[in-house]
Amino acid sequence: MENKPIVTCAGDQNLFTALYGSLTQQLPREPMEWRRSYGRAPKMIYLEANFVQFKEELLPKEGNKALLTFPFLHIYWTDCCDTEVYKASVKEDMQRWQAALRLHGSVDWLIAVVESDNKKKNKTNILPRTSIVDKIRNDFCNKQSDRCVSLCDPLKESSRSQESWSSFLMKLRTLLLMSFTRNLGRFEDDMRTLREKRTEPGWSFCDYFMVQEELAFVFEMLQQFEEALVQYDELDALFTQYVLNFGAGDGANWLGSFCQPVRSWNGLLLRRPIDMEKRDLIQRGEASLLDLRSYLFSRQCTLLIFLQRPWEVTARALELLHNCVQELRLLEVSVVSGALDCWVFLSCLEVLHRIEGCCDRSQLEANSSHTVGLWTYATEKLRSLGDLCGLVSENGPNSEDLNKTVDLLAGLGAERPETVNSPQSPYKKLKEALSSVEAFEKHYLELSHAAMEMYRAIGRLRSARLLGKSLAEFYMRKGDPQSAENFLLDSLKSYVSESWSLPLTHTRKQIAECQKQLQKMDEYLQTSALLASDTNLSDEERRHFCQEILTFASQTAEDARVALSMSSVTRLQELCFRPSSALVHVSAALLLELRLCSLMPVPVTLEHISASIHFTEEQPGSTAQKRAAQNPDGTVTFPAASPASASALELCEMLEHSPSDNTLSSAGLACRNMHLLMRRNDSATSLDTPNTALTALALEDGAQMLRASDVTLSPGNNSIVFTSQKPGVYTLRQLCATLGRVQLVLPHLYPVVQYEVYSQEPQLSIQPLTEHLLAGLPQQVKFTILTGHYSVKKGDALQLSNTDSMPVLHSSTRSARILSSSAELVAESALSIQSSEKVTSISLPVTPPYHTLEFLLDVLCHIPSCPARMESELPQKQLWLQQSGCRVSVDCPWSIYSTLVSLTFHVPFKVKHSLLSVGRRKFIQVCLQNVSDTNFRLTNQTLTENQHTPSLEQQCVFSVWELRWSGVSPVSLHCEFSASFAPADAPDAALKPYRYHFTLERVSTLLSVCAEIRPAEGEQDCRTGALCRLEVSLTRLSEPSDSDEEYSDTDGLRTTRLLYEVIDNNSNWAVCGKSSGVVSMPVAAMATHKVHMEVMPLFAGHLPFPSIRLFKYLPHHASPVIPPDTDSCLENDSLSLDDQAETASLRSRGSVQSLGSGESAQPRGPMPKRQAFGPGQVFNGTQGQQVLVLPAADHHLMEVNVT
Amino acid sequence: FLICVAIRANYPLYIRSVPTQGELKFHYTVHTSLDVVEEKISGVGKALADQRELYLGLLYPTEDYKVYGYVTNSKVKFVIVVDSSNTSLRDNEIRSMFRKLHNSFTDVMCNPFYNPGDPIQSKAFDSIVSTMMVQAC
Predict the structure, then answer these.
(1) Is the model more confident about A950 or about A242?
(2) A1015-1067, pLDDT tens digit by residue?
(3) With a cut of 0.95, is the ipTM above it?
(4) Looking at A55-59, A480-484, A498-502, A986-990, which range is the least confident one?
(5) Which of B39, B135, B21, B9 is nearest to B80 (CA)?
């Protein structure tokens, strides 16, 4: 910048010339603080000055506001040291100078007096140095003594000279700044006043512009670029506001000049510091809007570059260009179409060139985010120019286009001299680009690629793709679909991955066009399919694309079929199994209903739809967990595929049971697709994820298919019926719809859909109709045949091998029911049963597989003859005393092996018998107990003739017979009890016999026991607490048989030893003294032995006698061999005796048992042993006998309280 | 005219423009503006002081319209596109519009029946946008 503040020099010119060099050098060496008015921050500035000789013309005239040429300081130089000379000439000269200054109102002056020692030495009559300075001060500087400075020996290198220099410079700077502050302040005030007048009618923006620019210039001159920029920005804002106000209807008159039609559009010019041409136009008020803007921006640009802020230039440039276009529109300035495009294009390139000029390459690359906008804008504009001038077409421009081009080029004018020599100037580029189609293409591609490259470099992929897309459009216009395709596919990717539907549709449409031109039929059809189902398109367009597919499909050609993704045209919504379990047996029908929502605009008739299935030979039923997606009602709902829902949580229930007791230990939710969700969602990578859905359409050559033919695919349902073959698990893999040459393929089905086919072996089961089968009565059993995979043919029969215990009863008509697998009655048919000696053959009706055949059969199980053992051996709790298992062997037609079926019959009765004795008379009691749930009629109980017919309702019937025999009593009696019975509720039913065999042994009575209780001597009655005499007499009634008793021969007398025992269990009696003892009983009839004891009654009343028991006593030295027949019934017989005949209590039984068990547990030692008699061998006469016991003497008081 | 968009993870949740003609161009513009939004977000991440400022300001000017951006703390992006000639809308107005959008969006998200990621179909949100559009035009 050549401009510097002007400082005039008057006085001794030679002196000044001598000092000029060091002065200009030293002035800017140190900064000064500049304090500003209006509270602006103080600044440190380096001052420079342009020292010129003083002339009166330099002084500004009244009203001249020019600041650039304004002399800020006037210096008068003199080296006069002689008072005489001073008085003679110098003073006068100075006065003249002062007068001239005063005339122009300038107060910024300085008188510099240079002193040198040389001069002093030469002159003798010199005044003291100070005096001349004082004189000058006195003459000129009243009150402003600082306006006169002295400079000592300025040309010498001495410390004194240095000092005086620095103080002089200091003074100079201070005065300069003071002058600046004063003059600029005044100027600014004037300027503000002018600005305030802007609402007045005659106000002109251009004039004001020039004024404020003057200020800017001064700031620039003072190196205050920031300040200068502020001035321009203020102007910019002011102008912008005026334009906006104009748009709002508030037009200023002066704006009229800016509304003139645009005639020149030669772009920005940034190579000159000041574009004087444009400045002149503005000064003259002839500038157009573009001129003003261009000039303003060029100044701003210059200052910004001074300020080292080139990136702001680019941002401002873009803003400016947009703004200008807007403003022209707003001001309704008429512009030749394309002119603005030219202007913008040139300007963009000019700015870029300017920036490139002041930055190195690496800086440029690092800041391409700032420049890329301009590149793009330039590209766009060139493109629209190309469109306008017919350069983007296959045929090239026509004459009209050429005319336009000529007009546009004319508006560019001549190239500016600055760029004439540069081969890459924007002007040349534009001219060349508009000159021919080829050149245009070259330049356009160059720009596009540069911009795209930059976008990629800074990671703005979407912007790059958008540019690529417009490049593709260009290629399409040029008829070069090959080059366009990649760009389109690239941009499609980002729209797909980010699901922007409208751009997606639009791009896809372009791709369709491109693919059609390229004859890429597969891709074209795929795209068409997607477009046909695209709701963003109009019905007409959709129909068009649908028709494209149908037309292709109907063509007959040899080449391979085309597989398209089914998901583009249809959506699989639901899949439904009938039966709902998706589990069928072999050869059963499985109905699979697909709900497909067709997205096509028109109904499409498909030749067939097939679903390929994958077969695994798994055991059906093992995959129950896998089919979690299948609802219990057999439907599978497919989620609508959308990128948003794909990332939804897939939650499943988690219940954990503890392994020990199967209680719930934890419950929770688990996310099954966590790996997908937790993946870092990087937007940059998500843009680049390849969309493989279009390519992976491999059609599986599954051998197995489900197939439905001639389906019209209008939005609705399709059902496919399919018969399965092999048992196993089938998984649906693909769907494929065939439409002429076109196949629509759904490559994967998710969630996994499976159905199972199983095979079942035929099964026969025989079950009782009632809860228990009863023996002895005809019973119905149910035969159930699950046919499984076997189909029962005519003539098939079941062969039952007969057993004696269980004959099959014939009945006139039996019918069999045939049920389907879902338990529906299919048919009922008669059953014929033939019976031969060994087998019963049941011919079965014809039954299809997987059906159930049911029929009933009557069988009878004979009651087995009772075992001889006494039933009392069995524990009481067991209700069913007798069971009869019957095994039936059945030969089935489907198997070579016989089926063994086991049936259990229960005997409905329980029989007990007992022998009762009264002295020598004997009675037999038979107790028949019904243990079944059925009521029976009972007749013909025989042992004796007894004809009454008791009814047996789960109760006991007791029958008693007396035994009589003549002669010697038999040792054992074999008896048979027989009765007839029939169910009580069926009176006409035949009576069934029931027989019961039993054997009684040792029937005759050997001994009888009598007892008597008498009061004590001298007493009449027995009294409680008084001892009574108990006399027990044992009498042998008959001689025992040989084997019956143990004899001991003592003193020639055959005796048996008997153990007696007196126990009172009811605590009625206290047995005093010995309660048991051993007696020897002579073996002779009617031998009697008496035992006396003392007992004491404990209660009053009729007391039963204490029980007296009798045992055989076997001494320890006796033969250890015990007859086996008696041994076994030793304890048990005694027990049964207790039960039946005696009112023995549990306690006594317990003692007997423990004794017995103790013996049996020990090895046979030398212990005496007792043995019970058989039932009926001992007759106890005391049973049921009572004795009256009176209370003790009545000396007790009884208190009776009556209330 | 005005166009409002709510974007989550670069998927448009809500996009509406008035007038509807030329909608396609706006969609393209908004989609492209995501580049700048992302650039700004990553820039904001670096400058800690700016982290609380959700308003991203003018994303980029074009000849015909201005694109403004706003990003919530959960990185939901809002974009408003305004006609360049619409000078009544200053930075402050745009800022308050974004704040309104954000509030309404928060309400939508609080709806337990709203499935995050689905397009916004809330009538309340729609009416907020409508009133904003009416005011702006």
Answers:
(1) A242
(2) 877 777 777 777 888 888 888 877 655 544 555 555 556 677 788 888 877 77
(3) no
(4) A986-990
(5) B135
Q: How distant is the alpha carbon of residue A1039 from its chain centre?
A: 100
Residues forming beta bridges with residue A906, ordered by sequence position: A774, A883
**Partners of residue A43 on adjacent β-strands:** A34
A544: alpha, beta or left, given left = phi > 0 and alpha = psi -120 to 50? alpha
Residues 6+ apart with CB under 8 A from A739: A549, A550, A553, A604, A605, A606, A607
Are B61 and A494 a contacting pair at CB < 8 A?
A: no
Name the token pair of A211.
Answer: 């004024």
Contact A686 B87 (CB under 8 A): no
Distance from CA of B117 to the nearest CA of A (A): 5
Cα A357 to the center of its chain, rounded Å: 58
In sequence order, the 6+-apart residues with CB closer than 8 A to the CB of A604 are: A546, A550, A569, A598, A712, A713, A714, A739
Q: Is the pLDDT of residue A365 over 70?
A: yes
Phi-psi bin for A25: left (phi > 0), alpha (psi -120 to 50), beta?
A: alpha
CB-based contact, A648 to chain B, within 8 Å = yes
Which residues numbered 614-643 in A keep a CB inside 8 Å of some CB on B?
A: 643
The number of angstroms, rounded, from the C-alpha of A812 to the middle of its chain's C-alpha atoms is 67
* A1187 token code pair: 């004795």
CA distance A774 to A859: 10
Quick one: tokens of A946? Answer: 């007894």
Question: How far is the CA of A335 from the CAs of A245, A264, A278, in angstroms?
Answer: 21, 10, 19
Mean pLDDT of chain A: 72
The tens digit of pLDDT for each residue in A301-339 reads 888 888 878 787 788 888 888 888 888 877 777 777 888
> Which residues on chain A are in Cβ contact (under 8 Å) with B86?
none
A1113 beta partners: A1170
- C-beta atoms of B63 and A458 within 8 A: no
Q: Spell out which residues of chain A touch residue B31, defining contact as CB-CB under 8 Å.
A: 462, 466, 494-495, 498, 500, 503
Residue at A65: amino acid letter: K
Terminus-to-terminus CA distance in chain A, angstroms?
143
B11/A498 touch (CB, cutoff 8 Å), yes or no: yes
In DSSP terms, A596 is beta-bridged to A572, A716
Q: What is the pLDDT of residue A355?
A: 80
Q: Distance of CA A808 to CAs A771, A829, A890, A900, A903, Å?
A: 19, 20, 13, 16, 13
Distance of CA A685 to CAs A461, A493, A680, A690, B102, Å? Answer: 11, 12, 10, 10, 27
pLDDT digits (tens, 9 = 90+) for A930-975: 777 777 777 666 664 344 455 555 566 777 777 666 666 666 677 7
Sign of CA pseudo-dihedral A625, A626, A631, A634: negative
Residues A599-649 pLDDT 10s: 777 777 777 777 777 777 665 554 444 455 566 666 777 765 544 344 556
d(CA A1188, CA A699): 112
Q: How far apart are CA B72 and CA A490, in angstroms?
A: 30
Tell me the shortest Cα–Cα distance from A501 to chain B, in angstroms: 9
Residue environment code for B32-54, b if the CB has 16+ CB neighbours within 10 A, otherwise e: bbbbbbbbbbeebeeeeeeeeeb
Q: What gap in Å lies between CA B15 and CA B12, rounded to an integer? A: 7
pTM for this prediction: 0.61
| Cβ neighbour number for residue A1051 with a 10 Å cutoff | 5
More confident residue, B99 or A42: B99
Q: How far is B28 from chain A (nearest CA, A)?
A: 6
